[in-house]
């Protein structure tokens, strides 16, 4: 089994929190402008995309 070691600096954590806040703000804006169904659909699509990318780049078990 391979072990993947990832180190995050304080700046990396801050950047990831900033990206998360930006995505949530965009989804809130879509919720207000279009409809909740569209925002929920985009949110579910993003979650599936991120899970797929994590599965793609994680080592095989």
Task: Please explain how this structure is put together.
The chain crosses the membrane at residues 12-32, 38-57. Keywords: Membrane, Transmembrane, Transmembrane helix. The protein has one domain. Helices cover 75% and strands 0% of the residues. It contains two helices and no strands. The protein has helices at 10-33, 36-57. Helix 1 (10-33) packs antiparallel against helix 2. The longest helix is centred in the middle third of the chain and has 24 residues, at 10-33. It is flat, with a radius of gyration of 15 Å.
Contiguous runs where pLDDT drops below 50 for at least 5 residues: none
- What gap, in angstroms, lies between the N and C termini? 7 Å
Write down the Rg: 15 Å
Query: What portion of the residues fall into strands of 2 or more residues?
Result: under 5%
Which structural category do the helix and sheet elements fall into? Answer: mainly alpha
Shape field: flat
Overall number of strands: 0
Mean pLDDT equals 89
**Order of helical and strand elements:** HH
* Helix fraction by DSSP (H/I, runs of at least 4): over 70%
Keywords: Membrane, Transmembrane, Transmembrane helix
Could you give a short description of this structure?
With 61 residues, this protein is an all-alpha fold.
Keywords:
61 residues; mainly alpha; 2 helices; 75% helix; 0% strand; flat
Explain the layout of strands and helices.
Blueprint: H1 10-33, H2 36-57
Helix pairs in contact: 1-2
């Amino acid at each position: 089994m391979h072990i993947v070691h990832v180190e995050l600096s304080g700046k990396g954590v801050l950047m990831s929190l900033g990206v998360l806040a930006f995505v949530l703000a965009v989804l809130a804006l879509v919720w207000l402008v279009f409809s909740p169904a569209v925002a929920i659909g985009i949110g579910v699509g993003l979650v599936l995309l991120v899970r797929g990318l994590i599965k793609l780049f994680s080592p095989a078990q």
